[in-house]
Amino acid sequence: MPFPLNRMRRLRRTQTLRNLVRETxxxxxxxxxxxxxxxxxxxxxxxxSMPGQYNLSVDNAxxxxxxxxxAGVAGILLFGLPPQKDEVGSDAYDENGIIQQALRxxxxxxxxxxLITDVCMCEYTSHGHCGIIKxxxxxxxxxxxxxxxxxxxxxxxxxxxxxxSDMMDGRVAAIxxxxxxxxxxxxxxxxxxxxxxxxxxxxxREAAGATPKFGDRRSYQMDPPNAREALREIALDIxxxxxxxxxxxxxxxxxxxxxxxxxxxxxIAAYQVSGEYAMIEAAARAGWIERERIILETTTxxxxxxxxxxxTYYALELAKTL
Length: 322
Prior knowledge:
alpha/beta, TIM Barrel, 10-stranded mixed beta sheet, 12 strands
């Protein structure tokens, strides 16, 4: 109907009306909170480039898990900082590795919280790359067994879900086969399917101690200008047995989330990564933005684009304020 009968502002007049007709809603039940677990006791070291985020010893990781469960967050995503690193990332699949210790301790203290583990080699290798190195190049196929061994080890220790982030070709199939052969047929895989070689990962590399000692990860992570390739990556992971697919980072790739939502029926996760978090915190501390408003706006945008699951360092804060 033409103006003045059609007045779009009618339903914007009060907060109650705006809430009533809101199209996109945030909820803690669809959020995952990433945490970084390190050796030691009573360790809570703030990550300098990610104010408000910490490297946590197992005992403090347990406390954060309890807090997340109480807040109603769906799950936590665990990253490990091993006491020692080597060329083949042995701690990643050691039954007494840092993540395995954390999983057992957290599982004893929480019941309903989903425990999800990042499955990759970069945090555990002395060279900082996501697989076995030969001639200064990451070897795809030999790395698959290490990833599969890591996933099985995590599930044995109490993981509810594994999330391979390495971007090796064929890793979803290798992990699915390994889990099934060990009787873990009901353990889902959340694949980092469209993971771009992004400049937004810098603060994470400080938090996880995962900066490559040489080169970069562009030979295995996706080239940022490519969109159709992301859909191929997602399709391949689905064929290999992924139960959830992920786009990472989130905000710079909202178009990829939207295109994936249109094409695929699987649940889609999106990771609001460390660089996105750090930029908000830095701008807020400088007084350039309204922090809480920007947090809500950015996370809502990710959900609006089509993400079912939101992985964000703001999950705990949002769960308490929504």
